[in-house]
């Protein structure tokens, strides 16, 4: 009776306590395992994915439930990390290891880099969707580019085979249709030839195509036409199954660039004009907000003491009627540079907007240390009054440091299986 009344309020700590009791005493094992399956399922829906993964070997009934696809997608739908109430968001970054930071507890874990993603310098970008990471890897010497789909929690990974070949000028997105459980995930590929030194050798190469994960097949988008270029610093954000990018288009009458948000609808399988951007600063970063909106963080090169945060209205399926509203501004002389240029590398912050108008960011910074310039990896908490907290998580020197935040992202761990 007690468990029945408390099922809706049970937390991770309570579940771990139950599990410890089960493992410690076989005489008590009947008490939890004998609960009705729907009761156990309700408890598990409110349990973090990491704890569920550790619980799979506990008993066969739990194992069968946790690996069930219907349960996995319902757990994902109800995940607290998809809202602003309870935070399960993580920062994921690849340097010499896979580093996962829990911003709330300020704890960091490290795991080996999957051998499919090695060597280290080949990892160029990642895009996140439902706990799955779409990773772009390239070999600068051979020009070979690989694409991999990876679940960092379950450690499962698979390489995506190209229809012809991948190039370093490709952009990628990942999403799904209205029913992802039935239709599966899709990957979009399109090319930006501004930065491809070898494009003149590949005139016949497809510019727009979709990969269907369930059937491992590609389809060319013959009618896809765009009049914009993606901001080369933006790797895209997947929200509610669709992809979004910062982009620029020429305005011939005014002879200037117009900044906008463009998207790709994976249900209709077409690009969409979402909205114009607020006044663009030198550095602009796009992220998800509240599970169904976008956030835009801005900082100028000549005015680092000012950060502006904008939040969009709820995203519509057709991309229409979306606008940005200024959420809050931070004006403080102690604000860090969230963008860092290191010789040929450019570092971008991994960030999200938390409740009570706070910026949680994990980024690089450099400080003068005599003859050497150490690179600091710092976790910042910034509110309207400035830097509220900061934590140095690493320190490197340029000559022995090759990692960048180009391959960092915010993600919510999930049990979603690879196709």
Automatic annotation (TrEMBL):
This is F-box domain-containing protein. Coiled coil: none annotated. InterPro entries: F-box-assoc_dom_typ1, F-box-assoc_interact_dom, F-box-like_dom_sf, F-box_dom, SCF_F-box_component. It comes from Brassica campestris (Field mustard). PROSITE patterns: FBOX. Residues 29-76 form the F-box domain. PANTHER family: BNACNNG10540D PROTEIN, F-BOX DOMAIN-CONTAINING PROTEIN.
